[in-house]
Amino acid sequence: MGSRPAAEGGGAQLRTDRLTIAGDGAVYLADSDSPGALGVARLTDTDTHAARLELHGPPAFWEHHYAHEAALAVMNRGFTSSPQLQRVFAEVDPRNRAMLDLLRRLGMRREGTLRAHLIVDGHPRDTVILSVLSHEWTLDRCPVCGRPLLSTSGRRPRTYCSDACKAKAFRARRASRAEEFFAQRLIEEIARRPK
Question: Which pTM was predicted?
Answer without folding.
Answer: 0.65
